[in-house]
């Protein structure tokens, strides 16, 4: 226990407190069991450390990593028992998917210690979802994704911008600050800004490590994939990266990869949940996620630029950004008329010279343009959708 506390103290000392991710105010920290899920590398651990450092009494909180050597001779329940005995009130467990029996033991901790609050993170969304069955009546799950354009501007350029609703964006409620030139920073964000480590000198190498660990460790642990299947999964994501955008033709892809066409839809779902791709569905399913898949995008524009070696199609980049940023708070589906549909709103995404022809006569239809600072009538700047969270 003393070694765990010492490591935690060291981590707290290295934790910055100037900038908080959007989940800081979203999570109800009063809940007894909180699960923070999301892809690797987006700042979940930092968020917990900031919470501990800034708002909690040091003697009442502890953060541990689930693969710490401590657990070679102790269980999570052992840790919770000892922590509560010493007056602990908030136990934070990072990367809990690395602990083999985490779901059952969290249930026991929840039942045994009524006054203890537990917050856990998982680098892989796959394992967290797999284990939630036993905890469905107890855990409050949250999904977290990478930096919005608004967060990026605050973190790297010190520019604080408001969070806007979709309605506020469409009705031009945002007034552009005199000192803010969004187009001067937007391209940089699209290349690297989605990840909080984008200022690191070896950013692309680290991002590739994130992708490889997700493909080689997270997904195979969930699906029990063979080494040969992992190689084919890597090839599949490269096929998606090279497409403009990717419209899944299952039979053709199965033939190219040498796999059964029946497993490909599952592979796409695994990659989607792991934060590697987004699947744009139609609205036939009614409930979110049940519609037919119309297009597949890489999860974010930083992934696109890295996997295409900075040769990503500009139109695909724009659509990817729009879908990535709007999906946090809205159900986005494909449109038979334009690119996207959100509720009653129709969106056509393009460059500065994009015309109105495609949506003429369509109610609540908008042209979303890159390379413009301010909107007018039904024309909305693409970058403003980065203010949604």
Label this structure with key terms.
Rossmann fold; five-stranded parallel sheet; five-stranded mixed sheet; Arc Repressor Mutant, subunit A; alpha/beta; 2 domains; globular; 389 residues; 12 strands; 14 helices
What is the topology?
Elements: H1 2-13, E1 33-37, H2 44-55, E2 61-65, H3 76-85, E3 90-94, H4 102-112, E4 117-122, H5 125-131, E5 140-143, H6 149-157, H7 166-170, H8 183-193, H9 203-223, H10 227-241, H11 250-257, H12 264-273, E6 277-281, E7 293-298, H13 301-307, H14 314-326, E8 333-334, E9 340-342, E10 345-350, E11 365-369, E12 379-381
Parallel strand pairs: 1-4, 1-5, 2-3, 3-4, 10-11, 11-12
Antiparallel strand pairs: 6-7, 8-9, 9-10
Helix pairs in contact: 3-4, 8-13, 9-10
Question: How would you describe this structure to a colleague?
Answer:
This protein is α/β, with parallel strands linked by helices and 389 residues long. The chain has two domains: 2-143, Rossmann fold, CATH 3.40.50; 149-387, Arc Repressor Mutant, subunit A (Orthogonal Bundle), CATH 1.10.10. The protein has helices spanning 2-13, 44-55, 76-85, 102-112, 125-131, 149-157, 166-170, 183-193, 203-223, 227-241, 250-257, 264-273, 301-307, 314-326, and strands at residues 33-37, 61-65, 90-94, 117-122, 140-143, 277-281, 293-298, 333-334, 340-342, 345-350, 365-369, 379-381. The strands form three sheets. The protein has a five-stranded parallel beta sheet. Strands 8-9-10-11-12 form a five-stranded mixed beta sheet. A hairpin with a 5-residue loop joins β8 and β9. The model has no long low-confidence stretch (mean pLDDT 93).
């Amino acid at each position: 226990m003393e070694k765990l506390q010492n490591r935690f103290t060291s981590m707290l000392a290295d934790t910055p407190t100037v900038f908080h991710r959007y989940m800081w105010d979203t999570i109800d920290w009063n809940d007894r069991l909180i699960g923070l899920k999301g892809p690797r590398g987006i700042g979940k651990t930092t968020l917990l450390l900031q919470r501990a450092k800034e708002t909690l009494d040091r003697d009442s909180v502890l953060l541990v990593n689930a693969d710490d050597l401590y657990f070679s001779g102790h269980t999570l329940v052992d840790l919770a028992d000892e922590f509560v005995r010493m007056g602990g009130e908030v136990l934070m467990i990072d990367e809990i998917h690395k602990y083999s029996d985490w779901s059952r033991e969290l249930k026991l901790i929840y039942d045994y210690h009524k006054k203890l609050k537990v917050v856990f993170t998982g680098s892989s969304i796959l394992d967290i979802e797999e284990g939630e069955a036993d905890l469905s009546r107890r855990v409050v799950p949250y999904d977290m994704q990478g930096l919005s354009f608004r967060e990026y501007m605050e973190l790297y350029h010190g520019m604080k911008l408001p969070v806007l609703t979709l309605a506020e964006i469409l009705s031009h409620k945002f007034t552009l600050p005199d000192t803010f030139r969004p187009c001067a920073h937007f391209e940089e964000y699209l290349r690297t800004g989605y990840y909080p480590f984008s200022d690191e000198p070896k950013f692309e190498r680290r991002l590739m490590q994130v992708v490889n660990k997700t493909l080689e460790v997270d997904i195979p642990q969930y699906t029990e994939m063979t080494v040969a299947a992992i190689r084919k999964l890597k090839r599949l994501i490269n096929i998606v990266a090279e497409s403009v955008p990717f419209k899944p033709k299952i039979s053709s892809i199965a033939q190219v990869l040498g796999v059964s066409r029946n497993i490909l839809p599952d592979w796409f779902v695994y990659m989607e949940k792991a934060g590697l791709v987004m699947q744009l569905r139609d609205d036939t399913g009614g409930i979110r996620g049940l519609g037919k898949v119309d297009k597949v995008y890489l999860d974010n524009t930083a992934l696109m630029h890295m996997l295409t070696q900075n040769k990503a199609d500009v139109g695909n980049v724009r659509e990817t950004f729009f879908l990535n940023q709007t999906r946090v708070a809205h159900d986005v589906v494909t449109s038979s008329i334009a690119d996207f549909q959100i509720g009653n709103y129709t969106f056509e995404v393009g460059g500065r010279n994009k015309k109105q022809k495609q949506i003429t006569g369509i109610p609540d239809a908008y042209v979303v343009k890159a390379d413009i600072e301010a909107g007018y009538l039904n024309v909305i700047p693409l970058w403003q959708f980065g203010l949604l969270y």
